Description:
The structure holds 2 protein chains of 2 kinds.
Chain A: H1 2-17, H2 19-39, H3 46-69, H4 74-79, H5 82-86, H6 92-113, H7 116-124, H8 129-156, H9 160-175, H10 177-181, H11 188-195, H12 199-203, H13 213-238
Chain B: E1 2-11, E2 14-24, E3 29-34, H1 40-47, E4 55-60, E5 63-64, H2 69-74, E6 76-79, H3 91-101, H4 106-119, H5 135-147, E7 153-157, H6 165-178, E8 183-188, H7 191-197, E9 200-205, E10 208-213, H8 215-221, E11 226-233, H9 242-248, E12 260-261, E13 268-274, H10 279-288, E14 292-300, H11 303-312
Parallel strand pairs in B: 3-8, 3-9, 6-7, 7-8
Antiparallel strand pairs in B: 1-2, 1-4, 4-5, 9-10, 11-13, 11-14, 12-13
Helix pairs in contact in B: 3-4
Amino acid sequence: MRAIxxxxxxxxxxxxxxxxxxxxxxxxxxAMGITFQAFGYKSALASEMLQQFxxxxxxxxxxxxxxxxxxxxxxxRQSGSLMLLSTSPVREHAIVIGKFLATLAFLTLILVLSAYxxxxxxxxxxxxxxxxxxxxxGLWLLGGACLAVGVFASxxxxxxxxxxxxxxxxxxxxxxxxxxxxxxxxxxxxxFAELDLWWIHFQNGFMRGIFxxxxxxxxxxxxxxxxxxxxxxxEAKRWQ
Amino acid sequence: xxxVSNLTKYYxxxxxxxxxxxxxxxxxxxxxxxxxxxGKTTALRILACDLRPTAGAVSVGGIDAxxxxxxxxxxxxxxxxxxxxxxxxxxxxxxxxxxxxxxVASSDKKAKIGDALALTDLTLVAGEPIGTLSHGxxxxxxxxxxxxxxxxxxxxxxxxxxxxxxxxxxxxKLIHELKDKHTVLxxxxxxxxVSQTCDRLLVLGRxxxxxxxxxxxxxALQEPxxxxxxxxxxPDGKDGGAAAVLAALGGIDGxxxxxxxxxxxxxxxxxxxxxxxxxxEVSRAVIGAGLDLLRLDxxxxxxxxxxxxxxxxxPAAAPAPAPKE
Lengths: 240, 325
């Protein structure tokens, strides 16, 4: 636990100290505002407006999550600083979890800063705090899953461009699984639909303010799966 | 302190190291000397538990590195060729982070960081971000992170790489100071570096240990050699030029069959490499041929030549072992 905390603290502090980190925050908030203006602002009902906000923000969150995470291990491998971790008595899972939690904390910061939009919507009409909370929980979990994909992609290579492309392909592919499921026959149709990253679990659930336990379990399982892959990749590369 | 037995490392089908065997005692400072690609970095990364060897056994402080790499990592400090640094952190914060990674007790942290800063002469820049420091200072921070937790074994891969002459002298001094408290293993392709800082040398050539011992012991391994340099002038009125000079010295053992005009164009420079001192024969031959002997220097073969001879004699890499069925 101590090692996880040490790595988390260093990584999170690096985000807060870097200009790039704050540029990412600014771009993310700007993109959320612009997409909401473009797609959600003209809705008549406040609840629809809120759904539109979560709908448009989910795309921004997926992109920002990939941007935040693709470099976390690849960059260290490229600069040589990963050698410090790999020759220290630190387990691979501590490296992966510490870095993942740092990116998740930074994403949380972005989401917290974006909360003014739903609060403005709440001031305009009749929506509950629970709707806002569930929507944000969905964005947070969706972002967490994308961050886990990014951390895994980052563990594969020292080339940050390749890591970014791999992460983007995995996230993009998983968003398209629902569309793919539509051309399949049962039982594959259900399997592919349930594995989809966005349509079933976010759009039909969290985005509408509906909390389903299976959606929560799905995102936690995705996070666990990709972080486990990252740990195994680091183990294989560290002591090969 | 370190026992290495038949250590071998293949990258795919290419042998990078081994089989090599050696032992290093506690408190020794040992230098890995070899040309680029000789296997120095591979050997050091294996000892630092970053690379797993293809075959062989490594023991550090009595602990089997293959069976228990984590325990070995607790006992070492490693400076790779590129210092592993975080540019956005201050020197002090970075060393604190390294202490945490190396499981230094909180109560000892401040004292150990202070000692490392003092030893590496970084106290004045302790509050500076690493990214703003010069290359020499960053190299010092690299050494500081390798020693801050007071490991039994300090491994330094090319510690003077990229440093200017003044920084090299300072780094040598720093390595000398490390000798008092740690077993130190360092690598370099520069002979002067290793011979001036280490108690003992391990010469690597094509992935194998081709020589081991002190500077004097390595020199004694070779047959005594003399290198004779001379400058000869063909007097005015005498024909032949370089051909006349070579003809006059034709009977001398070890004459390298090439003469080079001097910078001023007033004579010819020649080199003789022989197992005995041939200065008397050379002077008689030159004078006897009616030529002018302008210069005659002789020196015993130094460690550099010994090193080059050892490396040149290293056997070529063996093919990768066949996979087990």
